[in-house]
Amino acid sequence: MKIESLLPRLFKLNAIFTTREAKDAGISKYYLNKLVDAGEVARFGTGRAGVQLWSNENLSNDDFLAIQLRYPKAIISGQTALTWWHLIDRQYTYLDLTVPRGYKIPNAFENYIVTIHHVDNRYYPIGLTSVRNEEDSGSLNIYEPERALIDAFRFKTITEFDRNQAVRNYFQSDFCDPLKLSRYGNQFPGLSDLQKITAVLSH
Q1: From CA 86, how far away is CA 35, in angstroms rounded?
Q2: Cα 170 to the chain's mean position, in Å?
Q3: I want to staple 13 with a disulfide (CB 3.0 to 4.6 A). Which of 17, 30, 118, 186 is the partner?
Q4: How remote is the C-alpha of 75 from its chain's centroid?
């Protein structure tokens, strides 16, 4: 079988896919290796339960999904989450990820700058939600706008300008929920600045 004849089957797969999904699309592991040699597919690594993952080079690279599959406990947070929810105007210049303390994840990746935030297990799940990415090829773990706003005041990597803009945009947004913000904020220490601003803007 020629490599070219496999490409229509390859286009049916997501940006990141498993060996089983490839087999269901009519591509055996033997031909996956042939596609790797041809530069059409890349070996991505392993996902949950040691499942082999492959990257479909014919689709645009989905960095968020790729990291999510390799490190399932990593949550998009900080500046990256603020950008996702349109709470700040700037495009993210690095990727903020939050993981539970003790979870092993590298501090740098080949194609982007990553900042890893380790938190206690009691703080880790607060505000966690799941969204679909732009290519609809998988769900992503990300913190809700309220948690992203709280982390803006906790992370030293986020500038005062971005913090202030995020607060203003949050209270002007359709998803603004001061009660939820207050409920989440009360579970974290050292947020007096955010609490003062919230008290003013929520009235």
Answers
A1: 38
A2: 20
A3: 17
A4: 6
Residues pairing with 98 in the sheet: 75, 117
| 163-189 tens-digit pLDDT | 989 999 999 999 999 889 989 988 888
Query: What gap in Å lies between CA 86 and CA 40, rounded to an integer?
Result: 34
Across the strands, what pairs with 118? Answer: 99
Distances (CA, A) of 2 to 34, 42, 55: 10, 18, 20
Amino acid (1-letter code) at residue 185: G
Instruction: Give residue 24's Cα distance to chain centre.
Output: 27
DSSP 74-136: -EE-HHHHHHHTTSSSSPPSSEEEEEETT----S--SSS-EEEEEE-TTTTTTTEEEEE-TT-
Sign of CA dihedral 35, 40, 45, 50: negative
Q: Model confidence over 96-123: pLDDT tens digits? A: 899 999 998 766 555 556 788 999 999 9
Residue 2 gets which letter from DSSP? -
112: left (phi over 0), alpha (psi -120 to 50) or beta: beta
